[in-house]
Amino acid sequence: TCFRVTVRTGRGGARVVGSKVRFGNHRKRTNARGRARICRRFGEPGRYKVKAKKPGYRRDFARVRVRSSL
Length: 70
Description:
This protein has about 70 residues and is mainly β. The chain has strands at about 1-5, 20-25, 25-30, 35-40, 45-55, 60-65.
């Protein structure tokens, strides 16, 4: 499953270019539009964290809920 992550400075704020985004063992940097695309597989249903950080900004995360494919 692939996810498109957009990193912003607060709710509806400016997009942050060059942020490091981590989703499990997968890492990407955001592009000029503040977006990163991460594809990964999940072994179990549950909640997973997507983390973002960049020097000069507060680290933050979002939760992704994965449901069973049955």
